[in-house]
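Quarterly update, task 2.4: octanoyl-coenzyme A-bound model.
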Amino acid sequence: MNLDYQTIKLESKENGVWVLTINRPESLNALNMQVLNDMADALRQISEVDFETAKALVITGAGEKAFVAGADIKEMLDMSNEQAVAFAQKGQSVFHELNLLKIPVIAAVNGFALGGGLELALGCDFMIASDNAKFGLPEVSLGLIPGFGGTVRLTRAVGIRKARELTFTGEMIKADEALRLGIVSQVVPQSELMMAVNKKLEMIISKSPLAVGKAKLSINQAFDLETEKALENEAEIFGGLFGSFDTTEGTKAFTEKRKPNFKGI
Ligand code: CO8
């Protein structure tokens, strides 16, 4: 397995947690095409291993200042229309892969999450942020609009009115405001960020990875379906679990008053 990348660091831990760090601290971890290509390769590799090997993914940024300060503005300077469309589509497809992964993806937001950085964090399943984190979609200040899914995912996260306000003003908000808006699940002092993420992950990885993956699928599909169809879909996914090792083990362990031993199958 390739863990060697130019612009990201990919680490796997014994407990099945993977950590993907965007590693361009000199540019506040700005996303250029190489970062997106490296991320795409890393996500493909993670998607190909079983639940024993990969139970959750954390995405964070190198250094203490930024999660990701956006798409790389310097790389965008001379882009043609076609190149810009391709760049936007690449970012969108990489962030969509985060939704398709069967494991939970948590953004550990350790500083600025601006533009493409906020769009990346919004592509993750949920976010835990350090108290120095700042969030915003400043694209209009550059004569741009969000192009990595921001107009879609921020609107779904905070509602259309707040999304318009934040996008039209390009305003940066602090972590406590992001918490109030429900963008972020938890805010902790910077020195405690990874501890808080790991605490949340311990809870998740003690559960059935198969069930967590199917719950993710059902929640994500519910976004794109009408209520009736989403409910039908949920029932199908729910029913599909019966007969699996984990469902049998989980329900049996309850009746036998013991801890379940899940395998993700
Ligand atoms: N791209 C490239 N370089 C960056 C970026 C970026 N987004 N952000 C920071 N850097 C670089 C700076 O240029 C600087 O490098 P250098 O020392 O070589 O000049 C270094 O990182 C440190 O940054 P600063 O000196 O600016 O640090 P400050 O603490 O003074 O400021 C800020 C921090 C406020 C975060 C500031 O750096 C900033 O405003 N950055 C840009 C934020 C931004 O506008 N982000 C949105 C970018 S556009 C976008 O994300 C669009 C996504 C959709 C793309 C669709 C494809 C077409």
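Highlight for this quarter: The first helix runs from residue 33 to 47.
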